[in-house]
Amino acid sequence: MEPKWYTYFNYGSIAFVAVLLIVILTNSVPKEYYIPLLVVAIIIFILRIIFRIMIIKKIRERE
Length: 63
What we know:
By secondary structure, this protein is mainly α. The protein has one domain (about 5-60). Helix content is about 85%, strand content about 0%. The chain contains two helices and no strands. Keywords: Membrane, Transmembrane, Transmembrane helix.
């Protein structure tokens, strides 16, 4: 993943998690979906961390 695409993924994932939070806080979804939505948000944050590590390694290899 290129640094440019990582930036898109990074901000896009933050926006997506913010939308999930708003949907949960406004009670737009049934309470049964709260846990699955929170699991999706946690997975997205874990992917952000993994991609950040990959990008840092790639940048260090180029130097």
